[in-house]
């Protein structure tokens, strides 16, 4: 009788390593399969096409949605960042559960361990509320694609160009060169000035008695020619054009141009347009209002 009981206990003990090995192999297999599934979902998400009319322009859609385009790059970056996050979470959960099951096979009572872990978790939760808040805010920021590296954003506390994004902290550099570290949990609102595209707004003033129709045609021709050049074609998403007279006073008419460019490219396009319009006005004899200083009667011509 004692021999039979001893043999039974020996058999049970011999089965423990086999069970532990099986649990470890199962955990690794589940983790591998889940990682492959996440990679496949990430690849599918990164390759999803953007709607062709999201800017009302086929040219803009082609530039931004094509492989290597801005929307495609942002979509790929966000998908890989989220995929990496989900892999880390799934790995921690799978191996944590596997570890507990191995302890159970070794004869440990899991109830006190789980209870202690719960108490520690509650204590950490109370002590690290801000950290948890920052982490959750960072996750939602990535999911919603609120901003990306290179975007110009206004966070209220600071305004500048995003240089780095983490789950806890966002780094941005303002116009004075100051690098700001802003906790994600403290961000109440975000104004993204360059997500997808930047708006070009340029006011052009000419003398009050100039032919508005002629000036408008010349400005539009210049803008179209600029947008067709190889150097500028990929920067301009929607060719700038005159939308009308923005302001009228006794000395000048102000025409407003609007257009769309790639993010943060509107500054360079505006400067180039000003340069070309200056040369055009000089060549065509189109006058612009000039300041009249005390003791200097009349109005000077030129740009």
From TrEMBL:
Residues 130-192 form the Mechanosensitive ion channel MscS domain. Gene3D superfamilies: 1.10.287.1260, 2.30.30.60, 3.30.70.100. The chain crosses the membrane at residues 16-34, 84-103, 109-132. Residues 89-129 form the Mechanosensitive ion channel transmembrane helices 2/3 domain. It is found in: Cell membrane. GO terms for cellular component: plasma membrane. Pfam families: MS_channel_1st, MS_channel_2nd, MS_channel_3rd. It is a multi-pass membrane protein. GO terms for molecular function: mechanosensitive monoatomic ion channel activity. It comes from the Bacteria. Belongs to the MscS (TC 1.A.23) family. This is Small conductance mechanosensitive channel. It comes from Actinopolymorpha singaporensis. The lineage of its organism: Bacteria, Bacillati, Actinomycetota, Actinomycetes, Propionibacteriales.
């Amino acid at each position: 009788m004692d021999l039979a009981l001893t043999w039974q206990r020996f058999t049970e003990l011999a089965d423990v390593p086999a069970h532990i090995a099986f649990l470890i192999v199962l955990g690794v297999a589940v983790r591998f399969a889940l990682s492959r599934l996440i990679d496949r979902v990430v690849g599918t998400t990164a390759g999803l096409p953007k709607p062709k009319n999201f800017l009302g322009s086929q040219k803009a859609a082609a530039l931004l949605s094509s492989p290597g385009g801005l929307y495609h790059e942002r979509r790929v970056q966000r998908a890989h960042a989220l995929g990496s996050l989900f892999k880390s979470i799934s790995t921690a959960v799978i191996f944590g559960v596997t570890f507990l099951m191995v302890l159970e096979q070794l004869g440990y009572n899991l109830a006190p361990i789980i209870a202690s872990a719960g108490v520690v978790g509650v204590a950490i939760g109370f002590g690290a509320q801000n950290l948890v808040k920052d982490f959750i805010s960072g996750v939602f920021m990535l999911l919603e694609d609120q901003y990306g590296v290179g975007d110009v954003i206004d966070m209220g506390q600071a305004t500048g160009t995003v240089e780095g994004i983490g789950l806890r902290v966002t780094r941005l550099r303002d116009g004075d060169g100051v690098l700001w570290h802003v906790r994600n949990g403290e961000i109440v609102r975000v104004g993204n000035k360059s997500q997808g595209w930047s708006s070009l707004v340029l006011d052009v003033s000419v003398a009050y008695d100039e032919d508005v129709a002629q000036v408008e045609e010349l400005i539009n021709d210049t803008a179209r020619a600029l947008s067709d050049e190889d150097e500028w074609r990929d920067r301009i998403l929607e060719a700038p054009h005159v939308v009308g007279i923005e302001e009228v006073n006794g000395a000048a008419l102000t025409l407003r141009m609007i257009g769309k460019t790639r993010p943060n490219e509107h500054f360079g396009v505006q400067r180039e347009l000003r340069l070309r319009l200056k040369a055009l006005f000089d060549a065509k004899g189109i006058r612009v209002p000039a300041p009249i200083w005390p003791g200097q009667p009349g109005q000077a011509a030129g740009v």
